[in-house]
Design brief:
The structure holds two protein chains of two kinds.
Chain A: H1 10-31, H2 39-53, E1 58-60, E2 64-67, E3 72-74, H3 81-95, H4 102-137, H5 146-173
Antiparallel strand pairs in A: 1-2, 2-3
Helix pairs in contact in A: 1-3, 1-4, 2-4, 3-4, 3-5, 4-5
Chain B: H1 4-11, H2 16-32, H3 41-72, H4 78-82, H5 117-120
Classes of the chains: A mainly alpha, B mainly alpha.
Chain lengths: 180, 138
């Protein structure tokens, strides 16, 4: 009986290596990052929440952004870096097979990074905006305590945005594999 | 011939990739890093797997329903949509059981007799009755 042999082209393997290496480095950075080190992602997120949902936040130096009206703090744990990592890796791995040259592979990695950053800011703004409203309403459903509801709402919004981003990227790239 | 699409279908839906990556980043990697010992991680893992799995199932169901609706819709070309005339193709008409390769040629016309040959001279061409190309094997 012949064994299963999976052949991965060198170019695809290089893209996967860059994506996974960047993901590991970003996760390592995030695990010990302070608020000041995460302002590059938290500041546009908080600005977008204020613009889209009309929830104003004030800067609390070295701690985060605080909404005094809703008593809600956007801390480093709310930065959405895990979503950023997931979106970047998904785009790179999912579309690597569409690239034929080294230049298109490089363009894929760069455009995946930009798209993942933009999607993270948007998804996180929506997630925090909805969380503020749920917190304000004190919502809870049976075993879903406010804390569990906050977690579930975050997972649902993040994952829905991740699927939408991935589907849009596959369509733009003219992917030849069936999406679903 | 095996198409790329056919191979892709066997490989499974591509949309599983973001789910695997998401679960890997939010559950598997922290667990491997020692977060599994922390209180509350189990609850976080259950909520993450349950909610993301439910969203994935709903997404796949929506995609399949959309594909089925598209397949059930009658196909009309852009041309047919604007032209009221019936199409040339006849539907639901069974073809003849046997069609001869070449219809039988009619009998030759009689030659003009001597006293009418003067009138017949103005007829151009001649009957190509049996001069068709021979049917070959397909």
């Amino acid at each position: 009986m012949r064994g299963l042999r999976i052949v991965v082209p060198a170019g695809d393997a290089a893209v996967a290596g860059v994506a996974l290496g960047s993901a590991w480095a970003l996760k390592a950075f995030y695990s010990a990052a302070t608020f000041d080190q995460l302002r590059w992602i938290l500041t546009p997120t908080v600005w977008l929440i204020g613009t889209l949902m009309g929830v104003p936040f004030d800067l609390e130096p070295h701690r985060g952004y605080l909404s005094r009206d809703h008593l809600f703090l956007v801390a480093p744990a709310c930065a959405g870096v895990n979503f950023l990592v997931g979106a970047f890796v998904s785009l790179c791995l999912g579309l690597a097979g569409e690239c034929a040259t080294a230049r298109t592979r490089m363009a894929l990695v760069l455009s995946s990074a930009v798209a993942a950053y933009a999607a993270t800011v948007l998804a996180n703004a929506v997630r925090i905006g909805v969380a503020v409203r749920l917190h304000e309403a004190g919502a809870s459903f049976g075993p879903l305590t406010p804390s569990r509801l906050h977690c579930a709402e975050g997972v649902a919004i993040y994952f829905l945005f991740l699927l939408a981003l991935f589907a849009a990227a596959v369509r733009v790239a003219g992917g030849r594999r069936a999406l679903a | 011939m095996r198409s790329r699409e056919g191979r892709a279908r066997r490989a499974g839906p591509l949309v599983l990739l973001p789910w695997l990556v998401y679960v890997g980043v939010t559950v598997v990697a922290p667990a491997a890093n020692g977060a599994a010992r922390e209180p509350g991680f189990g609850e976080h893992a259950i909520i993450t797997l349950g909610v993301s799995g439910a969203v994935l199932v709903l997404w796949l169901a929506a995609c399949r329903a959309r594909r089925a609706a598209r397949a059930a819709r009658p196909r009309r070309s852009a041309f047919a949509a604007h032209v009221a005339a019936p199409p040339l193709q006849e539907h639901h008409v069974a073809p003849a059981a046997q069609v001869p390769a070449e219809a039988l040629a009619h009998a030759e016309h009689a030659e003009a007799a001597g006293f009418v040959q003067r009138q017949a001279r103005r007829i151009l061409g001649k009957d190509p009755g049996l001069e068709r190309p021979d049917a070959g094997l397909l």
